[in-house]
From TrEMBL:
<protein>
    <submittedName>
        <fullName>GNAT family N-acetyltransferase</fullName>
    </submittedName>
</protein>
<dbReference type="GO" id="GO:0008080">
    <property type="term" value="F:N-acetyltransferase activity"/>
</dbReference>
<comment type="similarity">
    <text>Belongs to the acetyltransferase family.</text>
</comment>
<dbReference type="InterPro" id="IPR016181">
    <property type="entry name" value="Acyl_CoA_acyltransferase"/>
</dbReference>
<feature type="domain" description="N-acetyltransferase">
    <location>
        <begin position="3"/>
        <end position="157"/>
    </location>
</feature>
<dbReference type="Pfam" id="PF00583">
    <property type="entry name" value="Acetyltransf_1"/>
</dbReference>
<dbReference type="InterPro" id="IPR000182">
    <property type="entry name" value="GNAT_dom"/>
</dbReference>
<dbReference type="InterPro" id="IPR051016">
    <property type="entry name" value="Diverse_Substrate_AcTransf"/>
</dbReference>
<keyword id="KW-0012">Acyltransferase</keyword>
<keyword id="KW-0808">Transferase</keyword>
Length: 159
């Protein structure tokens, strides 16, 4: 199989949005996607670029993506967060996930980051095995904490 990995362009955001929705279905959160194509264009390609995105293509069709953004660790310094690494269902197991992850790691090394971090659902055994096979440490003793929009408002109303 011949594939290519490239930087995403604003014109690719409809395909990126489609992959995001596919991932949400896979993760049993089909109705959780609030971001729009316009949001992705503004946030990834506007004057205040919030993320970087790589795409995997086969026969000029977008079949995978990796979306990441900068963070800062008080313990380590500059890091990047891999928000999503998505390979469409028909292409899983083809090596595209490894190719996308390699691109992210190369990018992180070029930036001189001290760590690349991401989350994986505890029931996604194939992804966990994949990440561990690549040398990643899956920290099972940490809980991810989110404060969503409703939680933010509730928090602020209690002050």
């Amino acid at each position: 199989m011949k594939y290519s990995i490239r930087d995403a362009q604003a014109s690719d955001m409809a395909q990126v949005h489609k992959l995001i929705k596919e991932l949400a279905v896979f993760e049993k959160e089909a109705d959780a996607v609030e971001v729009t194509v316009d949001d992705l264009i503004r946030d990834g390609f506007g004057s205040n670029k919030l993320f970087h995105c790589y795409l995997a293509e086969v026969d000029d069709e977008v079949v995978g993506m990796a979306l990441l953004y900068p963070r800062y660790s008080t313990w380590k310094g500059p890091i990047i967060h891999l928000e999503d690494l998505i390979v469409t269902a028909s292409m899983r197991g083809s090596g595209l996930g490894a190719a996308l992850l390699t691109k992210v790691v190369e990018y992180g090394q070029q930036l001189g980051v001290k760590r690349i971090s991401w989350e994986v659902l505890d029931w996604n055994d194939p992804a966990i095995a994949f990440y561990e096979s690549k040398g990643a440490n899956v920290l099972r003793d940490w809980n991810v904490v989110h404060l969503d929009e409703k939680g933010i408002q509730k928090f602020l109303n209690k002050i």
